[in-house]
Amino acid sequence: MPTTSSEFLDSQSRYQVRLHVGVPAAEVPELAGTAHLVLVADALDDGDMAAIPPLEDATVRVVGFRTRERAAADVLEVQARRGDRAIVSIVTLAGPSRAFNVEDFLVAGAVVDALAARGIDFSSPEAAAACAAFTSLHRAVGHLVTASATGAEWAARGRTAEMVEACRIDAGADADVAAKA
Q: Are the CB atoms for 177 and 63 separated by under 8 Å?
């Protein structure tokens, strides 16, 4: 029997850092209701952020390889303002075909890794697995993304240089993380 969204949410509720893979954009508000910050892992800025319904009292940010450090710093800022743990839901959006997007999963792992480096490491097993994938494969991120199904589509459209730039880990550490409130 398939797991419903609420059952999946409950399975990670005790963790500070959570990962939700292949979430339809319409379900992001449900995740936002259980977290202080939602980070949408989007390696190639091709997620359909416009499909996420407007959210009240929640912060949703898009994060990629270039901005993972800034996103981790943002989590620390939220935590400092609260004076308590900030609950973080990292999300990869479902694509039109609902296929697994390795590039977004690796971004999610990159964010978990950046959070752990700052001492925020009470991660769900799902988040820990993404982190392990990223840390063991970080030197191959560019190759993995360009070899992925999405990477092949980008290459076919002549966007290889843009894709390679998006895979530069921490290259945009000082750049603003796109925000949607």
A: yes
Q: Judge contact between 119 and 79, C-beta under 8 A.
A: no
Task: Tally DSSP H helices, then E strands, for the chain.
Answer: 8, 5
How is 128-140 classified by DSSP, letter by letter?
Answer: HHHHHHHHHHGGG
Identify the pLDDT of residue 58: 64
Distance of CA 123 to the CA centre of its chain: 14
Low-confidence ranges of the chain (pLDDT < 70): 1-10, 56-58, 172-181
Which residues lie below 8 Å from residue 75, measured CB to CB, with a gap of 6+? 37, 39, 86, 88, 115, 118, 120
Task: Report the predicted TM-score, pTM, of the whole model to 2 decimal places.
Answer: 0.88
Centroid of chain to Cα 156: 25
Q: In this structure, how many other beta carbons lie within 10 angstroms of the beta carbon of residue 11?
A: 14
CA distances from 132 to 63, 92, 107, 155 (A): 18, 17, 12, 28
**Domain ranges for the chain:** 5-180
Per-residue pLDDT at 9: 55
pLDDT on residue 175: 43
